[in-house]
Amino acid sequence: MSVTAPLGFRAAGVTAGLKQRGARDIALVVNDGPSRAAAGVFTRNRVQAAPVLWSRQVLTGGRVRAVVLNSGGANACTGPAGFQDTHATAEKVAELLGDSAGEVAVCSTGLIGERLPMDLLLPGVEAAAGQLSRDGGLAAADAIRTTDTVTKISFRRGEGYMVGGMAKGAGMLAPGMATMLCVITTDADVPAAELDRVLRAAVSVTFDRLDTDGCMSTNDTVLLLASGASGVTPAPGELERKVTEVCADLARQLLVDAEGATKAIAIEVVGSASEADAVEVGRAVARSNLLKCAIHGEDPNWGRVLSAVGTTGAAFEPDRVNVAINGIWICRGGAAGDDRAKVDLRPRDVTITIDLSAGPHSATVHTTDLTAEYVHENSAYST
Amino acid sequence: MSVTAPLGFRAAGVTAGLKQRGARDIALVVNDGPSRAAAGVFTRNRVQAAPVLWSRQVLTGGRVRAVVLNSGGANACTGPAGFQDTHATAEKVAELLGDSAGEVAVCSTGLIGERLPMDLLLPGVEAAAGQLSRDGGLAAADAIRTTDTVTKISFRRGEGYMVGGMAKGAGMLAPGMATMLCVITTDADVPAAELDRVLRAAVSVTFDRLDTDGCMSTNDTVLLLASGASGVTPAPGELERKVTEVCADLARQLLVDAEGATKAIAIEVVGSASEADAVEVGRAVARSNLLKCAIHGEDPNWGRVLSAVGTTGAAFEPDRVNVAINGIWICRGGAAGDDRAKVDLRPRDVTITIDLSAGPHSATVHTTDLTAEYVHENSAYST
């Protein structure tokens, strides 16, 4: 269903030859309206790819007619020439649609530092425009894959409207690695300012709480486009709930497909003095290579949890922290608790619960284990 | 030579049975004076092991008669009972030396969260006291090893005085993993306040600039003891230079022995607006798992350098950053520079130079590559 589940959207995914293996590498998503309201959230990395610089500018207008995405090259660290390539790509889409380039967002993913082969890309964009259809959502989702082993799509049905989405990323957010791209569509009729609020709220509790390798990409982009084709304006909070569900579903798919991962680890921080404290603690634990190795080895090494908690500025007293792994409270009051032999770490899903005993707040951060396969995949990526 | 190279020190290393493999596991270093001036630097982790809590208190007095160190258990996250174990260990040393426990520092390293077997440890301390000698420095250095594959010792000769040292840690500082312990001795005659200044200055440019896995230990301790036995008080700056050399030498040994590492990576940040900016950038790059995997795969992936630089708050403009790997400027002005095929990444030593073009300052941070062996070693450590 993907981005074409809601009314008013067409999409396509084609092979332009940017990737060596002959797979699809250009996706196009077009909003046929009647509305073009849109919002975007971008990487916080200060080194931003040309398409991010371009699309941020487009989104300031709050209107998007089309999004063109390519895999096979990130167009990051490519200087003014790379920015011109992004501009030319948007102009090409605008020309094909008879519209304005100022309302065409561009996303790219792949290796950093290499120019895109425009002689292949522009004909690919033309081919994609020729194949736009109401059934094109799956092909578009397929075309944005890099090291992703599966396409990632989601949709939710609201009261008289739909929300659909596609994403790529296999390894991720801080916001993260190898680039995470996501396009979400809805046929609800909602102004751009409200879309912006909804998208930021949804991303802050989904993609922003996924941290598989602590690496932040130059290209991360999440877009939300509304066609208004259903004529329905959801009740306040209703659209946010649906968009959050789609984001959470896609985030889960990214997590499960993270490079080399064999475990999906949920780090639940409870009893914190604030939600920000809980997120800080969850993220510190999610970034501990030592802990991620231990979980890979099915070793309930709670000492590595505590030593990561201790690197944060969160409010807590070391001798009041409790830690459970898969429900067994193996650390109580900052020291050994229940028998660690009772912890069953064989399932793929692992939950680490950290009770800071410092307040009523909580948050969950998701990560993966660190494996030899991750090392292998990322040692061999560009060569 | 180790910690007994300077006059006034005796040491021993014995087997108490704390480790399973029958290796030495208790070290004792005694300062016979005439001075007992001392200084210490400890982990910044908020979760601190019992011996760190104890030794910090001892060092506030600026005097240390002896340091007792054990491998085979970190005595971290062991609650009040663990603190009593540390206290009892110091009391035992004091009793054996006919001295005050308030001037006995304690260091522990090994697994977090388990009580030390005091029935084995205290007889080991007694045995160590019985074997104290002017030749004991090497045995002491051997006794503090955990996953270290070699003993780490160093010494430098000053004008009429000596500086010696031993360290353990195989993976490291943020300050870091698996615990880094270091004892430095000198027979120079220097008051405690000056030792404190010297040690902080030396650590800040050596151990603090080593970051192999971003993980900060609960037990890291660096001690500097002065016996005054040479009767020499070095000229200002002279002792700092020698202590810094010993720290740098030991830091290098830690780096080369880091768990699973096949590359020693120096991240030289130049052209920064401040030294702090240079350290922040160096550390961010040192913590990029993606970059560390790329270097392991001998892939000069400068895009991963730039994306790590972009996560910092340092002053720089993305389009003015230059990056060289092993002397080849493959990124100029934030975009592709010289041919990446010219970069030879086969040597063990790798230098990544990052020119921020933002000022006259610089700093170098040292790290290692990320390998499947690191994952293996840390998946299997406690089980």
UniProtKB/TrEMBL annotation, chains A, B:
It is found in: Cytoplasm. Its EC number is 2.3.1.35, 2.3.1.1. The active site is at 179 (nucleophile). It catalyses: L-glutamate + acetyl-CoA = N-acetyl-L-glutamate + CoA + H(+); N(2)-acetyl-L-ornithine + L-glutamate = N-acetyl-L-glutamate + L-ornithine. GO terms for biological process: L-arginine biosynthetic process; ornithine biosynthetic process. The record marks 178-179 as: Cleavage. It comes from the Bacteria. The record marks 109-110 as: Involved in the stabilization of negative charge on the oxyanion by the formation of the oxyanion hole. Pathway: Amino-acid biosynthesis; L-arginine biosynthesis; N(2)-acetyl-L-ornithine from L-glutamate: step 1/4; Amino-acid biosynthesis; L-arginine biosynthesis; L-ornithine and N-acetyl-L-glutamate from L-glutamate and N(2)-acetyl-L-ornithine (cyclic): step 1/1. GO terms for cellular component: cytoplasm. Pfam families: ArgJ. Coiled coil: none annotated. Its main location: cytoplasm. Substrate binds at residues 146, 168, 179, 259, 378, 383. One of its GO terms (molecular function) is L-glutamate N-acetyltransferase activity. Keywords: Acyltransferase, Amino-acid biosynthesis, Arginine biosynthesis, Autocatalytic cleavage, Cytoplasm, Multifunctional enzyme, Transferase. Catalyzes two activities which are involved in the cyclic version of arginine biosynthesis: the synthesis of N-acetylglutamate from glutamate and acetyl-CoA as the acetyl donor, and of ornithine by transacetylation between N(2)-acetylornithine and glutamate. PANTHER family: ARGININE BIOSYNTHESIS BIFUNCTIONAL PROTEIN ARGJ, ARGININE BIOSYNTHESIS BIFUNCTIONAL PROTEIN ARGJ, MITOCHONDRIAL. Belongs to the ArgJ family. This is Arginine biosynthesis bifunctional protein ArgJ. It comes from Sphaerisporangium krabiense. The lineage of its organism: Bacteria, Bacillati, Actinomycetota, Actinomycetes, Streptosporangiales.
